[in-house]
Amino acid sequence: MNRVFSIVKKDLTQIFRNRFIAVISILVIVVFAIIYNLLPSKVDEVFRMGFHLKVDEEAAEEYHLDVGKEDIERRLSEAGGEEAEGGLELTWADSLEELTNMVENGKVRAGVSIAVSGQEPKVVLYVSSKTPSEITEAGEAIAAEIGYALIGYALPADFRATVIGPDMAGQQIPMRDKLRVILLAFVFLLELYGLGNLLVEEVQRKTAEALLVTPVTLKDFVSAKAVTGILIAFSQGLLLALLLRAISVDTWLAIIVFLLLGAAMTVGLAFIMGAISTDFISMVMISLIPFIALMIPGIIVLYPGLNSPLIKAIPTYYLIEPLNGILNYQMQLSDYLSSLLYLALFTVAFFILGFVILKRKLV
């Protein structure tokens, strides 16, 4: 054990002796914290919709549409209940051209044109080509409700949604809180280069071979590197979590557990990258593809619609998904016991593979 601690002390001194790595490590954490605090902390949940109504005199009398705009607005708001009153904002357009311009310029998310004559009313929804599909679907539903509410027709059925799994309705998450999860994972992935470079230097300078001539065994050598890497990665992750306000009375245990496992898994992968590399440049090139792949699960936090079963094969999925659930949706550590198991299995597999490769190179 004393041999391991001696190597750990030497490694920590060697790492922080490299001013570039030391400065970059601290700078990245500070920059991430600044970015997080500069981003908006609230979500705009108001659905802004443009509205244009064209009606002839006969239809206006039949459907009682000869009243003022205020009365029509009240009728439309009442159709959606109390929730719609605060969540739906109608902007009137004097002409169809004005309505389409409002949609095209992004002043409203969607526009509804209703033309009422003696025949069946014509309801048209206008959306921009840049409008996401979920906004279009919401606009279609609102447009249908507006048409029915305005002319007095009753809906053919009463639909009530049944949510399977956690109901995320009303839990819109600000972009900065979603980004917080990605930043925590990203700071771990930077350790691929930190520990990987340390291992490459040990092999390249023959320091590792010199240590193995002494009573230090390969097991001691790997254990020391693992302790060094986990200590540094976990410390950086914990510091960033504190700066991003990710640790609270309710989340501290779960966050610390996942940060520790995330650090261990990253260090295990760094062992593989460092063991198969011949120098720093080759390590950077070899680590590039795994680095990009490991960041893919972070995209799902920002765009959940892109989720697919293939992403579950990426190790960082089992780090990012629990952090997102715990920080943003009040999930508990017990909800992610399977993720803990997968992270532990990936960590063990990475360390075993790295140990085998390193053993063939040094022994």
Summary of the model, kept short:
This protein is α/β, with parallel strands linked by helices.
Keywords:
elongated; 7% strand; alpha/beta; 2 domains; D-Maltodextrin-Binding Protein, domain 2; 15 helices; 4-stranded mixed β-sheet; 65% helix; 363 residues
- Major β-sheet profile: 4 strands, mixed
Spatial order of strands in the largest sheet: 2-1-3-4
Low-confidence parts: 79-85, 154-170
Number of helices: 15
N/C terminus separation = 22 Å
The structural class is alpha/beta
Average pLDDT rating: 78
Task: Tell me the strand percentage band.
Answer: 5-15%
What is the CA-based Rg, rounded?
A: 29 Å
Gross morphology is elongated
Succession of helices and strands = HHEHHHEHEEHHHHHHHHH
**Tally of individual domains:** 2
Helix content: 55-70%
Structure description:
This protein has 363 residues and is of the alpha/beta class. The protein has 15 helices and four strands. A four-stranded mixed beta sheet has the order 2-1-3-4, sandwiched between helices. Helix 9 (191-204) runs antiparallel to helix 13 (280-302). The radius of gyration is 29 Å and the shape is elongated. It starts with a helix and ends with a helix. Mean pLDDT is 78; it is low at 79-85 and 154-170.
